[in-house]
Design goal:
6-stranded mixed sheet, 13 helices
């Protein structure tokens, strides 16, 4: 009933929406798409949706929209976790999905800036705007959970992407991070032939991404007593911090003492390999990462990174899930994306196609 009421309101005041949402005090960037705009073109319904490389057959089946795309009228709030490449890619691809497929969907985009307090404020702002659906990539579940509870109390459906929360969403769309970590760990085991000293570079301490990838890496190392994690450090998904932490570790552990680095995210890895290169130790340290952002794929080609586990941006999947929610269509509680291992042998397949 709530969605129906908003549908009627939107039709009556359609021409007032753009002006009403241009409030100078808004914290979030707003992108409005209208079918009646003289500068916009209505997407061709016969053109299939491009789900990318990571939404397989089952994923596409459960996300298939039954309603006509131009019938989707409502406001979707997308809240990214930060401005690092994954977060920036999430926001950009969300806008592209709306522009390409949903002419009457209005999109408001917010950025958590890797700070749970900022993300909480953005979510509360979107609640006050009475958005129809929230699509959220959490900074940290525990700190942001109260804001999710407030959204649920306001009867706003929540779609979680990338990271999970104990606050039950309508659906959760992501690759399985424990398995992602396990794949990264297995690559380290294979490249070291089951023996060596490893540095683990983790993300933000309380994020579900960090917790799950760490669990998977440790599981991969089980049964290999000759693989030792020398240090497990948090570089907070930050390239500068990744470089600085690696510089300190290279000073603490002289040449020959570090055999591999396994990093939870390419953005930190890029800082780490810069420090390794500047120390002249690139020939002795194996590097395995996660994400498959474009700079990391180039580093795989050059040999600076040995492998990365591709972790997909959840777009256009998050926007399609929002459209299905507005249309009243059902989805499973969890939709899993694929996370392949990228090496020098197959890197060409993924270049320019991971979204960040």
């Amino acid at each position: 009933m709530r969605l129906l009421n908003r549908f009627l309101i939107v039709n009556v005041s359609f021409l007032l929406v753009a002006a009403a949402c241009s409030n100078a005090g808004d914290r979030a960037e707003t992108k409005t798409n209208t079918a009646n705009s003289a500068n916009s073109s209505v997407p061709d319904e016969t053109v299939g949706i491009d789900y990318g490389l990571f939404c397989g057959d089952l994923c596409q089946e459960v996300l298939t929209l039954e309603a006509p795309r131009d019938s989707i009228e409502g406001t979707v709030g997308v809240v990214a976790s930060g401005t690092f490449p994954y977060g920036a890619g999430t926001m950009r691809m969300a806008k592209e999905a709306v522009e390409n497929y949903f002419p009457n969907m209005r999109l408001v985009v917010g950025n958590g800036e890797s700070d749970p307090a900022i993300q909480t404020a953005v979510i509360d702002d979107f609640i006050s705007r009475q958005v129809d659906v929230l699509v959220i990539d959490l900074v940290e579940k525990d700190a942001v959970n109260p804001a999710l509870e407030r959204a649920k109390a306001a009867s706003i459906p929540i779609i979680l992407i990338d990271r999970w929360s104990p606050v039950e969403p309508l659906t959760l769309i992501k690759a399985e991070d424990v398995e992602v970590g396990r794949k990264a760990g297995q690559q380290v085991v294979a490249l070291l032939n089951g023996k060596g000293n490893v540095i683990e570079m983790k993300g933000t301490a309380a994020s579900t991404t960090t917790l799950d990838r760490n669990k998977g890496i440790l599981e991969a190392f089980e049964g290999y007593p000759d693989i030792q994690i020398m240090e497990s450090i948090n570089a907070d998904f930050d390239q500068t911090k990744g470089r600085r932490m690696m510089e300190l570790l290279l000073q603490r552990f002289p040449k020959g003492q570090i055999d591999a680095v396994v990093s939870h995210a390419d953005v930190m890895t890029m800082g780490a390999i810069q420090a390794i290169r500047e120390a002249g130790r690139e020939d002795e340290i194996i590097v395995v990462s996660v994400d498959a952002q474009e700079t990391a794929l180039e580093a795989i080609e050059s040999g600076a990174i040995d492998a990365t586990v591709a972790y997909p941006i959840v777009m256009p999947m998050g926007i399609i899930a929002a459209a299905k929610t507005i249309a009243g269509e059902t989805m499973p509680e969890r939709i899993e994306l694929e996370a392949p291992v990228v090496t020098k042998e197959n890197v060409e397949k993924y270049k320019g196609k991971t979204g960040y």
